[in-house]
Design brief:
Helix content: 25-40%
Strand content: 15-25%
Order of helices and strands: HEHHEEHEE
Number of helices: 4
Largest sheet: 5 strands, antiparallel
Length: 114
């Protein structure tokens, strides 16, 4: 699967996940997504995300979760666990950051990076 194909599939799965999240009665907003263009424009890697990682390749995004109007940062919150489980079930390349201490991160694996 090419990077273009992965980006398109990632976007489709992300859209389906967002619809699913709202159907649960929760709210979600986009956080940091594709950062490569900005970082390269500045001619220096100035990002909290890994260079050549999912945000750099267009295969990762951070989500902002709200349950009953409250911003949820605790990765152990039941909503995050449900979201992570759902995300991982949507595609064989889907990776959830809750497995490595970054619960609001969703991505597709690419060249061994998630």
């Amino acid at each position: 699967m090419t990077l273009r194909q992965k980006r398109c599939e990632f976007t489709l799965c992300k859209a389906k996940l967002i619809i699913w999240i709202f159907a649960q009665g929760w709210e979600v907003a986009s956080g940091e997504g594709y950062v490569a263009l900005t970082a390269r424009f500045k001619h220096a890697w100035q990002s909290p995300h890994k260079e050549r990682g999912a945000h750099d390749t267009g295969l990762g995004e951070d989500l902002l979760l709200y349950v009953d109007g409250k911003y949820i940062v605790e990765g152990t919150h039941p909503a995050w666990l449900a979201i992570g489980t759902m995300w991982e079930s949507m595609h064989e390349l889907a990776r959830w950051g809750g497995r490595f201490g970054d619960a609001n991160h969703i991505s597709f694996e690419h060249e061994g990076r998630k």
